[in-house]
Amino acid sequence: MPGSGRKWIDVPRAGARLALDFLLPMRCLSCDRRVGTEDGLCPVCWQKMQFIEKPWCYRLGIPFTYDVGEDAWSPRAIASPPVFDRLRSVAFYEGPARDLVLALKFSRRRELAGPMGRWMSRAGKEFLGEQSLILPVPLRWVRLLSRRFNQAADLAKVIAADCGGQYEPDLLRRRKRTRQQVGLSAKDRHRNVRSAFGIDKERESELQGRHVILIDDVMTTGSTVTACSKTVLAAGAASVNVITFAIADPSLRSADEAVKP
């Protein structure tokens, strides 16, 4: 009866859902095992996923082995402060995290951008908001043409929708062709992306005083996000923070000591 507070079940819709689950059961995002929730990992992959959690370095998001406070910096951040303000990542680039990145990028499983982007949004929630200007790390047009999509742009779009920020996929551009970063040394990576990025002169005003969030799928030595950060800061951005799905640099695996700056 109306007003009784009783919730009625839509039997046809519930039946259709059960039939769909039977015919197309929900699968683990990484290994394809059956799971009970949509866009989730099975228990095995969840255990193998090396999530990055607090306590961590305030600047680089590197996990500490013990809690030393919210604003502690790792020795690496003190010795070589990054150009960007803060880096936050979901997991280390190994196991299921690596599988997800490769599946999105090379197997064209673009549906993975949804759950991956939402994980990234949670990782960067401390600096994400409606005032954020969200920029994906761009691809050179030749590579974009061959791949047909930019995985960083797919992730950035999801993050912007989640936090209400402004998504601008074309504001930051790659203006020269670079070699693939895979297999290059840290020094060669930095040299490879030097002066590789730019902002359209007619659009520089859009960066004035803005809080920029750079989005990429994985960070290794940080050469790409550093080059991008320098570009947007030089164009007038007030700050730059970075969110990646994974960190691949083995030297960022942990920070055993912490220092209050």
Automatic annotation (TrEMBL):
Protein name per Swiss-Prot or TrEMBL: ComF family protein
Protein family (similarity comment): Belongs to the ComF/GntX family.
Domain Phosphoribosyltransferase per the UniProt entry, residue ranges: 177-256
Record domain Double zinc ribbon: where: 19-66
Lineage start: Bacteria, Pseudomonadati, Pseudomonadota, Alphaproteobacteria, Hyphomicrobiales
Domain of life: Bacteria
InterPro entries xref list: ComF/GntX_DNA_util-trans, DZR_2, PRTase-like, PRTase_dom
